[in-house]
Amino acid sequence: MADDLVCAACSGRVLDGGCATCRLSRTSLPQDRLPAQAFLVLAAVLALLLVLTSAF
Ligand SMILES: [Zn+2]
Could you tell me the residue range of the domain that residue 11 belongs to? Predict the structure, then answer.
């Protein structure tokens, strides 16, 4: 769905990064990787908690 975003400034696809507005929007768009890493950290913390709580 984010692929279909059309820039209001240059009427091009935001993904193409045709203008400064596109690039600005594009940098704020890909948030898929950050939550994935945050999820991994969260999973690691949960696993650690599980190990700690089961040890007692
Ligand atoms: Zn643009």
Answer: 2-55
